[in-house]
Amino acid sequence: MPFKAFRIHQQEKGVSTGFEDLEVENLTDGDVVVRVAYSGINFKDALAATGAAKILRAPELNGGIDFSGVVESSESPNFSVGQKVLVCGCGLSETRDGGFSEIARVPGECVVSVPDSLDLREVMALGTAGFTAAIAMIRLEENGQDPSQGQMIVTGATGGVGSIVIDMLSAKGFEVVALTGKSDQHEYLRQLGASDFIDRHSVEMGSRPLEKGLWGGAVDNVGGETLGWLTRTVRPWGSIASIGNASGIKLETTVMPFILRGVSLLGINSIEMPSSLRNKAWKRLSEDLKPAHLDLIVPRTIDFADLPNAFDEYLTGSVVGRTVVRVGG
After folding, report:
1. What's the rounded Cα separation, in Å, for the pair 295 and 313?
2. What stretches of the chain adopt beta strand conformation (E)?
3. 128-267: which CATH architecture?
4. What residues contact residue 18 under an 8 Å CB cut-off, 6+ apart?
């Protein structure tokens, strides 16, 4: 039976996209076939679908870096027909067909059973952003980050990861400072748990190898000059979780923060990781790391047919929180 998918084709310049009818045989290999219920829109999805950055590493793929749904068929011993599952990362919409499709086929090692306390929509309300935030929290915890070290600053605060991690940090007793260029969103961030705000346009980055220590630690979603500034202003033994590169991939710093202050720079990769860590993160997301304000962070759900019209606002930075896509749910 044919099904509908939002497909991205690489062109000599940019991409072409649109809904197409496919068969399961047209999908990249995998031993678990899932009828997709929900997906979500991430910044990377917008880059891929508009050609603003080269995300696909194949001539053509279905978009969508995450999805949830119900198993239709399985050759994996770990999953059975009718089971509720989710997939985040694992090369979706980069090297294999993604979740903007009524049917998806993926390797069993990429699949996670939906925790009992979450439903199919909730796991995509969290999605890759929530999963990434959970990995960041786990790595910060493992590295000894503690509220007693001082304020945690979160950059890219109104984005999906930023919003969720503010909620998580606040719930764990951290005092959170939000770095944002959206002064009209302070009340939204305050509701999530931020106690103070800094206008990113007003920050004096400085240029010395070490600036005054301001922060107990940080979660950075933007990279570039801002990440360099964070390395120079985090206090001794603080940790920085590095997640995104919306402001650039170049990092200008010195060894001084690391050898004189013991600052740790923790890279957060939500695509490739051991299955044990993937399952641990989703278990935590269903328990103590589940955001208390998920409905506030995910203000809208759109229909699959409306997906092509939703990408541009991600590129302009006007989106606040997350958007869930109702594919078949």
Report:
1. 20
2. 3-10, 15-22, 32-41, 60-62, 66-74, 84-88, 103-106, 112-113, 152-155, 176-180, 194-199, 217-220, 239-242, 264-267, 300-303, 323-326
3. 3-Layer(aba) Sandwich (3.40)
4. 6, 7, 308
> Using one digit for the tens of pLDDT, what is the confidence trace for 94-141?
999 999 999 999 999 999 999 999 999 999 999 999 999 999 999 999
Quote the CA–CA distance of 281 and 289 in Å, as a whole number. Answer: 9
DSSP annotation of 169 reads H
CA angle 273, 135, 173 (to 5 degrees): 165
Element (H, E) at 166: helix 160-171
Q: Percent of the chain having pLDDT more than 70?
A: 100
For the domain with range 3-114+299-326, which CATH number is right: 3.40.50.720, 3.40.309.10, 2.50.20.10, 3.90.180.10? 3.90.180.10
42: tokens are 């991430």
pLDDT at 329: 65
**Count of CB atoms within 10 A of residue 305's CB?**
11
